[in-house]
What we know:
The structure holds three protein chains of three kinds.
Chain A: H1 3-24, H2 54-57, E1 81-82, E2 85-86, H3 91-103, E3 108-111, H4 115-118, H5 142-148, E4 158-161, H6 167-181, E5 189-192, H7 197-203, H8 210-227, E6 231-232, E7 234-237, H9 239-243, H10 248-268, H11 273-276, E8 280-286, H12 290-311, H13 317-320, E9 324-328, H14 340-354, E10 359-361, H15 374-389, H16 404-426, H17 430-435, H18 438-456, H19 484-498, H20 501-516, H21 522-530, H22 535-546
Parallel strand pairs in A: 1-10, 2-3, 3-4, 4-5, 5-6, 7-8, 8-9, 9-10
Chain B: H1 4-9, H2 13-25, H3 27-34, E1 44-50, H4 56-69, E2 74-80, E3 89-91, H5 94-97, E4 107-113, H6 125-135, E5 139-145, E6 160-165, H7 170-175, H8 177-183, E7 186-189, H9 197-209, E8 223-226, H10 235-242, H11 249-283, H12 296-317, H13 324-328
Parallel strand pairs in B: 1-5, 1-6, 2-4, 2-5, 6-7, 7-8
Chain C: E1 7-12, H1 20-31, E2 35-38, H2 45-54, E3 59-64, H3 69-82, E4 89-94, H4 101-106, E5 109-113, H5 119-133
Helix pairs in contact in C: 2-3
Amino acid sequence: MGQDQLKAQQERWEETTLKKFATKTPERLPKYVSASSEEVATLYTPLDCEEGDYLSDEGFPGEYPFTRGVYPNMYRGRLWTMRQYAGFGTAEQSNQRYKYLLSCGQTGLSIAFDLPTQIGYDSSNSICEGEVGKVGVAIDSLYDLEILFDGIPLNQVSTSMTINAPAAVLLAMYIAVAEKQGTSRVELRGTIQNDILKEYVARGTYIFPPKPSMRLIVDTFAFCAKEMPKWNPISISGYHIREAGCTAIQEVAFTLADGIEYCKAAQKAGMEIDAFAPQLSFFFNAHNDLLEEVAKFRAARRLWAKIMKERFCARDPRSMMLRFHTQTAGCTLTAQQPDNNIVRVAIQTLAAVLGGTQSLHTNSRDEALALPSQESVQIALRTQQLVAYESGVANTVDPLAGSYCVEALTDRIEEAAAAYIAKIDGMGGMVEAIEAGYVQREIQASAYEYQKAVEMGERVIVGVNKFTVKEAPPSGLLKVDLGLREVQIGKIERVKAMRDAVQVQATLGRVEAVARGEENLTPPIIEAVKAYATLGEICDTLRRVFGEYQSQVIF
Amino acid sequence: MPSLLDSLRDRKVRALAQAISLSENDPIGAAELFSQLGPVAPRYKIGLTGPPGSGKSTLIRALLDQAVAKGLRTGVIAVDPSSPFSGGALLGDRLRMQLPNFDPQQVFIRSLSSRGHLGGLSPGILTSLSLLEHYGFDLILLETVGVGQAEIEVMYLVDLVLVVLVPGMGDEIQAMKSGLMEIADLFLINKCRRPGAEALMSELLTMLASAPRFQEEGVWRPEIFRTEAIDGEGVSALFERLFSYREDPVLQTYLQNKQRRRLYYQVFQSVLNTFRVWTADALKPITLNPDQAFNAHELAQRVIGEVCRQERARHDAQPLEGNIADTLACGSASHPDITKRDSLPRAET
Amino acid sequence: MDKQKIRILIAKVGLDGHDRGAKYISQALRDRGYEVIYTGIRQTTDDVAKAAVQEDVKFVGLSLLSGAHNQLFPKVVEKLRELGAADIVVFGGGVIPADDIPFLLEHGIRAVFTPGTTTDQMEEFIRTVMEESA
Lengths: 555, 349, 134
């Protein structure tokens, strides 16, 4: 059947069958939109994906443009890494939680640090009052990281660390702990998030201005390319941008635009694209709208492959592969009827798996209320295991490919994201776009529209603005001990009493000297860490040289 | 509880903040109340204006840095437009200006909304500025958004207007050329390390060279400064220049002339504002009948007559002392000329 | 109630950078006619109190998602009192467990808004407070 014939038939169907039916049963809403407020059609047919060609647009998994997946047999070869983000309180407490998660069948670690650690302050700094150990584990010096990984062989796990501004320092500490365990840095597998650009627009744990921050990042690229072949020196993150309220299209666009900026910076520093691009990894959000989300992951893979090949002239296919971690959308969790969140997370898990993720964190039902309890964490992990072993969706590669709807959405997201990227290019790149407030304003506008629609009841959130019940406030939530800051201060004092002060000063002096020059900063940071210089001391040294980012408010 | 006036005399920060609110909410009432504070010595006031995103707030922060280091107490008023739909406002500039852990006696920052007034400035702004003067700040900064005909008012409120521009906005400068020339005493090319700074500079130079009034001898001609407010580049040079009037007779004369014009304008505005309220009050009880023949001019004359009669009665009851010429005279003991002071006050030790 | 004359400071104390909620409420209140001053992230309790006094606000809304609310919220109340501004009404929002709410109310926080609060509810609170103080 030719396209023209199909088109005629579809018009006939709309005019007769559909119209007749709709007189009795009209559509419930004047307009149907996705979670990203994109309009969704009543029906998708081959007419909606008529352009292009299967081999060049979808192709085969493991081959350019990787729309169908980065590996040829996907989850039949190896399931995604089930990696629950965890960490709270002291290193001792978090160490216990990691051992528990590993015993439950989790296959990788994901370290959550507290805010003082993420912003490069020692717990003793007065600005940290109330924050020590709250949203993650408190790390002040190598001593804490030694405790954190005590009894966990680092040659056997892969570890992801959500650390950005001081990523180089935590990487250095990880290397130091591994070497003490007798594992060389060459063997280490894992990721540091190390994505500063999204901190400026969405997450807020920046320290230094963009320029020196980019330099620190490029230094870790160069260091890992040379010394840590199995390590991902960055996880370019759209997750937090989406959490800040952007749409699926913006998530793809801004994340890949960040990726482009890092590639440009590394190239400018003299690196060959294929020397570092295979080690770049990504991090996306899995939101509620199942079909849109699956299309988003596929579109991101295809667009990145094209960018790497056409724009950066990469030759190594591994440079073109968009490998990504996924986390289910924290912003969709509700404090009302928290058990409903289990179902939301299950749908989001399906989206991530049908979208071909390489690793996944599933949120716990109680995260809109407090830190997750052990029981909730177990349900979250079990959700992944159910999808992996019982649902059957992991048995074949990219099972939603060829769905008229999913293919049409994939095309649309790719096209719209490419248009955003072109606009950002026109502004001079992502750093300039951020400095001009463009990205923040775009995110802000989407977030505001979304929330307004929820308040107006145009967007239904079950248990929040529809199907509500009166419920007793939940109890038995996990609480972090308030005396933690004192515990950490005590540890810092002990470390300072034990270490060789002269050596600390010498290594910090070296960090400062290299920061002022152009050599790679990672090696002197490793030396400082090994001398038990604290995180705050190292970051303060860098603050003196680089200055601090002046935050801004943009509406 | 001490009265607001007493607290103001005691230089309580809270009282100052509340007095400014009162000026915003009830300009006439506030003007009348605070006139009891007596005449005030004018303080050095600098206006910063320019399009959104030009870095005015960051520049204020850099100027505050300089001022604090030199021991100058500084008051800042930042005016942002209100929402044309709701009348509300979202004022977010404070973050960019505020120094961490600032001393509230040394630095006072107040965000105001234009509350729907075209021109971006509300009637209360005059009183608010004079409250800052009463409070004794050494330097007062006024930030307003936008440049154009509507913003001309700012030049009557401050001693010097800095127009802040950024590279890459040549078209916009062309569009607002006349407005710019009217109000700018100094131009700042902020974000000066960006490409296009040179082009902007030559554009401004051409513009200045083509204006006949700047070509005469002894006339103040707007100077152009380059700054990168985010790291303070060029800001200390700017700051020194602002306070160099003692060494620069052209600038000194210019400031004196401006001050005279400004005082005239303030009285003029104050009279207008007062009449606006009186007129509204006088019209309130009158019901106009659309069916009747109507002469607006004649009615206006009657309203003026009525207003004047009432005010006359009030003045007879409480006569003002002295004559108007003395009160208005510029440079008298109660209105010392700011340019007669030490150009840059020394840090207090 | 002349909303334009009601000034509200929305502040993020502590170190967390999640400002989606704080920005939303700032915009929503602006769109309902209030004058809102938004401070941005990472403000110290001290600076928030000083800003509240200088801006002469009637309300201070604190947003925090890191869990440090029990330490930081009462601090703002305390600082306002020190500055002679105990009449400024402080409310809070964010990820705040129900168990903590009584503690916060006892320490001078007038209301705590948890996720899912609508702008209507917040306006209702503002109205009630304004009527009380009228």
